[in-house]
Write a structure and sequence with these properties.
Blueprint: E1 3-12, E2 18-27, E3 33-43, H1 49-62, E4 70-75, H2 79-82, H3 88-98, E5 105-108, H4 110-119, H5 127-138, H6 141-155, H7 163-172, H8 178-195, H9 197-201, H10 203-210, H11 222-232, H12 235-243, H13 246-252, H14 259-269, H15 276-288, H16 298-309, H17 316-320
Amino acid sequence: FKYFSIALDESTDTSDSAQVLLFVREVNESFEITEELAAVHSMKDSCTGNEIFLKVKESIFTLGLEFSILKGVTTDGERNMCGAHTGLVGNICKAVLETGAAAPMAIHCIIHQQALCGKNAPIYEVMNIVVQNVNYIRKNALSHRQLKNFLAEIEKKNLAHFPTCNKFKLENYKEFPTVFAVGVLTYLKEQFQTRFRDFKSAEDRIRIFENPFALKIETLPTEFQLEVIELISNNNFKDYFKEASLQQFYAMLPDESFPNLKKHAREIISIFSSTYLCEQTFSKMKYVKSKYRTNLSDEHLQATLLIGTKKFDANFQDILKDKQFQTSH
């Protein structure tokens, strides 16, 4: 594998033991992606960032991987995970920097971030709709500019672009609560800016990967400039970019012409955006280690979860070919 990233989350099982799941996402030369459960660590005593790091380090070396090709760490955002000094992320960054490689991108799970953004807003029951709209707005520069203009219009009590708000005004014979609306929208805007600062710090890197055709050459790092010039001057590449997925597009680019762009794409593609796989596996763990099986050993728990998260079918014929069967009498 060229690069890999990890995702971790922690939960407590039915016997009150802290279990830390470690998932690995790897990308190879051909941009093929593999995601798998690497380890299940039972934290017997405490669950500090230093202790989790030692377990992660052990797992990485067991898998034959190296810190020098680790490009991302995605966690649930707890202090023991994301602490800059004694937390897991801080320890991992130190280990990667010691190899001479750039520090990996540290990400607080997007799903957690979205939930936290609206947790304290006074409209929690409609946050699913709000999150969907915010996601749409943030991925489109024009929509983001329009939102800013809308906020300014609401502050002026101009509801020309908000027919539902106008309807409220007409049906209730009173002014729409613009102060409240502006307060909520401003709060959400601030929350998203604060909680998604992980992505803000990596915005330039992500934009290069997301759409190299939309970039200004003079703003690019030197190593990308000539490659992007060659890329945007080729109409075939432009057409394929519109039709294919990003993974397919970068896999198609010739290695000899675009080595830096392809290297950068592999790094970004290898990164987990959320700890969804961990959450999904914890749900399975509740069935595996239920109140009826609290004495299940750590080894059996890990083996069961590894089997439960694999995406391939077991070849029973090959497994049983050397076994001797006992026929019934």
